[in-house]
């Protein structure tokens, strides 16, 4: 990823910022639009809107990812002052290294050499001390993001598809923490100068709130919703930032993810559904699922039977029901936030846990209409599950854009 600002931290399964920019610019009178992204992630839609000078609001319930998006929106910072501050952090950190007190974290010890962990921890402690005594928060958020953005390239651990950390899989080459930090901060400074020269505008903001029940104060309604919600594919978005959150002391280990992160997210992974001990019948009886209840019940009951024959006995049956109930709540929350005749675009993919097909685009379209939107259509972008040698089923899948008319 080479897009300025976007590249400061790549979040899992992001969608195309270029496409969002093209979509915005294609709208007549786009400078007057108000755009909403209820699943803002690390800020793809927000930044694309700012590149077009268009007002945009994002919701992001993942506390760590929300902070990443908020930091990216600080791109208007003064680059000379930013360089002065990051160099101060680097200078003080180099003087205090090799002290470290991270012996309490087995994950960090497995993922870093003692030398690099000591340097990273020196950066962390120096940042924490200096940022606490200054009020220019946006600039310090960029330094926080600079440190966060190098944690993977400085680690000996491998990463699986997307961003799970694999401590047992070792990389042959890792970056020195101090060198990587300086390079990342200079990349940030270079990008800031570039986007200022491109006349980006400060038009976006992000809120730490849940799209199922958003808490925002805004009388104005939105013309467009452009977003990509989590797919029901068992990807654990909480685990995606476990290394980073452990490093910053926000969690002590995997067991903390449910209480600190997952409870705020959509039910898109079986770990979440299992932890909450959800009951299938209670979920399916919710009136919001009435438009798809027959098909969804059939799929969930089949999953409930199949899981008993599997070693892992994953709770895909309750995950699927909870996922569609979550999205039904999102559509009902979005309807009063959108103008009459608003346009919504959800970049989504279908799923087939244990080989049981979930018609995500069709079912979400029906849920949207039930929430008060006028109609929907689906535009396929690509086929999925066609190339992986280790795929767990042979059900053909696809990814595309669900267009909803308001």
TrEMBL record:
GO terms for molecular function: DNA binding; N-methyltransferase activity; site-specific DNA-methyltransferase (cytosine-N4-specific) activity. Pfam families: N6_N4_Mtase. Residues 35-69 form the DNA methylase N-4/N-6 domain. It catalyses: a 2'-deoxycytidine in DNA + S-adenosyl-L-methionine = an N(4)-methyl-2'-deoxycytidine in DNA + S-adenosyl-L-homocysteine + H(+). GO terms for biological process: DNA restriction-modification system; methylation. Its EC number is 2.1.1.113. Keywords: DNA-binding, Methyltransferase, Restriction system, S-adenosyl-L-methionine, Transferase. Belongs to the N(4)/N(6)-methyltransferase family. N(4) subfamily. This is site-specific DNA-methyltransferase (cytosine-N(4)-specific). It comes from Desulfonema ishimotonii.
């Amino acid at each position: 990823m080479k897009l300025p600002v976007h590249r400061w931290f790549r979040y899992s399964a992001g969608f195309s910022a270029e496409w969002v920019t093209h979509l915005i610019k294609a709208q007549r009178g786009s400078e007057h639009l108000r755009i909403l992204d209820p699943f803002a992630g690390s800020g793809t839609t927000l930044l694309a809107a700012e590149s077009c000078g268009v007002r945009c609001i994002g919701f992001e319930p993942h506390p760590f990812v929300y902070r990443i998006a908020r930091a990216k929106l600080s791109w208007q910072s003064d680059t000379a002052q930013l360089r002065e501050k990051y160099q101060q952090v680097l200078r003080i950190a180099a003087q205090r290294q090799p002290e470290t007190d991270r012996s309490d974290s087995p994950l960090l010890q497995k993922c870093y050499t003692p030398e690099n962990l000591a340097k990273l921890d020196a950066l962390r402690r120096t940042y924490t001390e200096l940022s606490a005594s200054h009020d220019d928060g946006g600039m310090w958020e960029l330094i926080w993001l600079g440190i966060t953005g190098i944690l993977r390239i400085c680690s000996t651990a491998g990463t699986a598809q997307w961003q799970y950390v694999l401590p047992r899989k070792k990389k042959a080459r890792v970056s020195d923490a101090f060198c990587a930090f300086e390079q990342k901060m200079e990349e940030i400074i270079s990008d800031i100068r570039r986007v200022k020269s491109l006349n980006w505008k400060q038009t976006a903001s992000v809120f730490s709130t849940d799209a199922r029940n958003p808490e925002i104060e805004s009388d104005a309604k939105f013309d467009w919703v452009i977003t990509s919600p989590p797919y029901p594919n068992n990807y654990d978005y909480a685990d995606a930032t476990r290394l980073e959150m452990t490093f910053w002391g926000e969690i002590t280990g995997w067991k903390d993810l449910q209480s600190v992160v997952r409870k705020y997210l959509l039910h898109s992974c079986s770990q979440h559904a299992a932890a909450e001990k959800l009951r299938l019948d209670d979920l399916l009886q919710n009136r919001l699922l009435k438009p798809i209840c027959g098909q969804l019940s059939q799929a969930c009951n089949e999953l409930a039977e199949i899981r008993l024959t599997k070693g892992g006995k994953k709770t895909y049956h309750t995950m699927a029901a909870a996922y569609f109930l979550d999205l039904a709540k999102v559509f009902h929350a979005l309807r009063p936030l959108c103008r009459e005749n608003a346009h919504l675009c959800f970049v989504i993919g279908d799923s087939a846990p244990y080989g049981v097909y979930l018609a995500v685009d069709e079912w979400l379209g029906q849920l949207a209409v039930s929430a008060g939107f006028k109609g929907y259509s689906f535009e396929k972008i690509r086929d999925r599950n066609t190339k992986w040698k280790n795929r767990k089923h042979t059900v053909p899948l696809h990814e595309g854009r669900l267009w909803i008319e308001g």
